[in-house]
Amino acid sequence: EVRLVESGGDSVQPGGSLRLSCVASGFTFSTARMGWARQAPGKGVEWILIINPDGVITVNDESARGRFTISRDNTKKILYLQMTSLRTEDTGMYYCAVPETNYRGQGTQVTVSS
């Protein structure tokens, strides 16, 4: 059974930082493309960053460039999202997911507000 469990979401002020983690199990993590997606209030789910097994990164959300960093630990089967300089528009539910599949975690809430 595929499981993706996110953690690290919180409420922070603009300009703050957070690190999200996603623990994966039930599939071969080391050979899977992985990504982070966000669902902002009242909007659909949108990809932010995707990382290939070899570490090559695709930026799907240009607002994340230079502020968010995706990384992976293939030994521990953990996907990370380091977020800095957070903005109010970054608020949303953040999901760890496997692109081109239905595999997605339950999400972790990030709220950026003063």
Concise summary:
This protein has 114 residues and is mainly β.
Q: Which tags fit this structure?
A:
mainly beta; globular; 0% helix; 114 residues; 47% strand
Descriptive account of the structure:
- This protein has 114 residues and is mainly β.
- It has strands at 3-7, 11-12, 18-25, 34-39, 45-51, 57-59, 68-73, 78-83, 92-97, 108-112.
- The strands form two sheets. It has a six-stranded mixed β-sheet with strand order 2-10-9-4-5-6, with no helix packed on it.
- The model has no long low-confidence stretch (mean pLDDT 97).
Number of strands: 10
Described by strand count, sense and barrel closure, the largest sheet is: 6 strands, mixed
**Fraction in beta strands:** over 45%
Instruction: Give, in order, the helices and strands.
Output: EEEEEEEEEE
Strand order of the largest sheet: 2-10-9-4-5-6
Number of helices: 0
Which runs of at least 5 residues are low in confidence (pLDDT < 50)?
Answer: none
Q: Residue-averaged pLDDT, rounded?
A: 97
The helix-and-strand class reads: mainly beta
Task: Name the helicity range.
Answer: under 10%
Cα end-to-end separation: 40 Å
Which term fits the overall shape?
A: globular
Question: Radius of gyration, Cα only, in angstroms?
Answer: 13 Å
